[in-house]
Predict the structure.
Amino acid sequence: MPKDDLKKLYDVLELPPDAPLRDVHNSHLRLKKLYSGESIVLEPLGEEFTDKKKKKILEQIEEAYAKILASRAPEASRTEPLFSAEAAEEKLSEPEDPAAVVYSGPRLRKARDAKNVSLNELSKELKLRLELLNNLEAERFETLPEAIYLRAQLRTYAAFLGLPPVKVADDYLRRYNAWKEKTSPPPPEGASRRHRS
């Protein structure tokens, strides 16, 4: 793709052409939120931003995002597709109440797939080991670090995908702690009693 055309796509997302993929994702989410629904930022402009105009801008944002991801595919040497109509359609057909969603490993993978982000890309962008991300999504709890470290990694993962970081970490760690409690051996008999002299 010619550089001028690519620059125009980045302009749509309000980014410089050398922006990291994390910024591309975040800008895409921010602009979608701004132009869909009632935005207090656009409210004072009233008639200037009709529903028809907002819809056209949203289409330009989606097109720019998809083309930028496609142009960055060779650079990230992905093994998974960056943009698929099925994933986009699935994402649109599932309006969910965010408060009702319980984040588990498979739910995180589904969210990542819906955003067309490969594990390789996630690993490079977040500076987290690919093996850790695989184990996180597969809920191989026995391979994961202690909860205190895991919380930070989960929050980073969630923020990158535009998910609520605190809720993701809390939901996931609830499952992790339940597993740990179930698989931990009981304390030795008398370990909880205090010695009296």
